[in-house]
Give the backbone structure.
Amino acid sequence: MESKLKNLKDSVLKDLAEIKDSQILADLKNKYLGRKGELNELLKSLKDLSVEEKPKIGKLANEVKEELVVLFSKAEKIISGDKKESEDLDFDPTLPGIKKEIGHLNPSTIVQYEIEDAFLAMGFSIYDGPQLESDYYNFTALNIPDDHPARDTQDTFWLEGDNLLRTHTSNLQVRMLEKYGAPFRGIFPGRVFRYEATDASHDHTFYQLEGLMVDEDINIGNLIATMKTLLSAVFRREVDVRLRPGFFPFVEPGFEMDIKCLVCSGDGCSVCKQSGWLELMPCGMVHPKVLEAGGVDSKKYSGFAFGLGLTRMTMMKYRINDIRLLESGDLRFLKQF
Ligand code: FA5
């Protein structure tokens, strides 16, 4: 009997949850609470219970009846459009609110925005371009012909035809010069891809931020001043860097700028491969052949370019000891920024 009463209440609740109009509600009320309804049928069998059981089950039956009467009366008010009643049922102001999860910027994006602000203040514009690129813009236009050994230094994901996933943001140098000509000041942050094994400081997908400035009388002094501004925008303090000669067919002269590893303070770790230094930002004076490929008169104009390893810069700023964390999508990592 006890379980029958409970089942009755459960099926009333289930049916009420699906009620759409007042006629169905009236039929349901009749089915459960009517003179010949299911509750009354159950109550009729009270007389068959033992003397001990009768008072206990009788009390329970009355409670269930009262509950059902209240439930039906609330349902009637809701169906008839009694707004207050439906609000009372749906909203309990004493319950704690549901906290909305807020997303986080990837630390690389935070550093990218800081650099963008510094360059906007210096009169640069920000550009974007294709990640699926042709062999021409990624290599040939940058003075790296088909058989040039420099192609081997950037392991490439080749696609059908003469296409590839860009290996560096330098793919935009000639595109931008073709489109905007000289003078030009721009930075191009973006994702690049290399077909190489990963380790603590190498990923197959990472971010670079390219800078290109072309005008009359641009020299190495302009390049160094710009790189210093970039470093102080990100680190806001002195950091140890070193400049050494570097070879890239699209700059002459070319340099490599390394940063003293901030993960180990130069003592040696897996990020800097125990050397204490990390390659961060190759740069140089734009090769005349690149200017010409972009339709710019190399006798009148000169320029500098740099290709910052944005993901590595981010690692240095936040002392992240494995590059693969940055693209892992691991919320435990991302929530820290
Ligand atoms: C280049 O990609 C040149 N385009 C840079 C350049 C631009 C030179 C303009 C001159 C003028 P490189 O392959 O060294 O160069 O890569 C540039 C930076 O990207 C490196 O210093 C490093 O910080 C970063 N980098 C390179 N490979 C990886 C990798 N697998 N994972 C993470 N960062 C990388």
Observations:
- Residues 107-334 form a domain with the BirA Bifunctional Protein; domain 2 fold (CATH 3.30.930.10).
